[in-house]
Amino acid sequence: MKALVFHGPGQTSWQDVPDPSVKDASDAVVRVDTVTLCGTDLHIVKGDVPEVAPGRVLGHEAVGTVVETGADVRSVRPGDRVLVSCISACGRCRFCREARYGQCRGGGGWVLGHLVDGTQAEYVRVPFADLSVHPLPGTLADHEAVLFADIFPTAYEVGVLSGGVRPGDTVAVVGAGPIGLAAIATARLYSPFRIIAVDLAASRLEAARRLGADATATAREEPERLVADLTDGLGADVVMEAVGLPEAFELCTRMVRPGGRVANIGVHGKPAVLHLEDLWIKDVTLTTGLVDTYSTPMLLRMAAAGRLPGAALVTHRFELDRMEEAYDVFSRAGDTGALKVVLGGPQHDTVALPPREQ
User: Enoyl reductase (ER) domain: which residues (predicted)?
Assistant: First the structure.
């Protein structure tokens, strides 16, 4: 089969690799019908995730069809259309029993495209299939469903829930890429008073407005002052970091109000300064985290009911064998306007964002 293989920082290739097979009784082999790219994949290619060894097939998000299962798999069978989650869960360790699947100590957690071969391929072996794939409703198209493998549960769990978004809150989201946009969409479920989006790209800020942001600012437009002006100088109740850069994290800590919450979602490859000399007296809560994906079934139901705008984040579609071109487009999002890049499935041109409901 063909797959995208990581060969070291800055080096990948779409090449022949051996077909995957069932190794453990809890495995499933899934034919990849639709796959997407993630900002974490870009971090890997840059060399920011040293645990990823050369020779690894990348990718941790997919929609596909089960073609083979191990003897212990009970929840799916060959022929089922499924979502492949970015997190695998053994279901037996302490953390899995607490539904903290991202911290699985039984061989799961974030393993696909990280510690074992991933989904940017024609087929993928999924460990612990009973807890790591989700049967999909027929009403949800592949290109929508694939966004619920990672970005929507990540934004919801690590951003909205960890940040404790409540009705009436002022919420600031720094970074209006796919994760930041999903954070805006899922934060709206909790009826915040105002959502403020911050990004460098005007196209992403326009997308943020269409998905529910009430105010936007670029880094050159003094977002700290905007937040202060809109909150009578207090700062935002919840600030989410959705970039993964030190300057973005430090901006978040300057925009939060006393007693507020900073939820770090971004993947960081470099140290960020934690200004405790300023924060210690403000009663600020800071959270970090890897997604657990316990919310995925609920989010899929919300998407199937039209309550979450999955398709609105897809801007580019490619055939699966154009993986390297898709990476190039995604990595130059500032020039290409890329949000989510999807490969496989029925092909269309760029998808326009729907107008925001009034």
Answer: 8-343
Confidence band for 355, pLDDT divided at 50, 70 and 90: very low
Structural domains of the chain, count? 2
Q: What is the mean pLDDT of residues 165-185?
A: 97
Using DSSP's 3-state secondary structure scheme, residue 323 falls into helix
Could you tell me if 311 and 348 are in contact, meaning their C-beta atoms sit under 8 angstroms apart? no
Find the helix packing angle between 178-187 and 202-210, rounded to 10°: 20
Picking from 23, 87, 14, the residue whose alpha carbon sits closest to that of residue 324 is 14
Helix 246-255 × helix 223-230 angle, to 10°: 20
* 3-state class (DSSP) for residue 126: strand
* Of the residues 269, 287, 305, the one at which a domain ends: 287
Domain range enclosing 59: 2-149+293-344
Determine the average pLDDT of the residues in 223-250: 96
| Averaged pLDDT for residues 150-167 | 98
Q: Rounded CA gap, 204 and 181, in Å?
A: 9
Beta strands 62-69 and 133-135: pairing type?
unpaired
Query: Quick one: tokens of 83?
Result: 């979502």
Residue 7 has, within 13 A of its CA and on its CB side, a CA count of: 8
Task: Please compute, for residue 52, the number of CA atoms within 13 A of its CA located in the half-sphere on the CB side.
Answer: 30
The structure tokens 């055939």 sit at 319
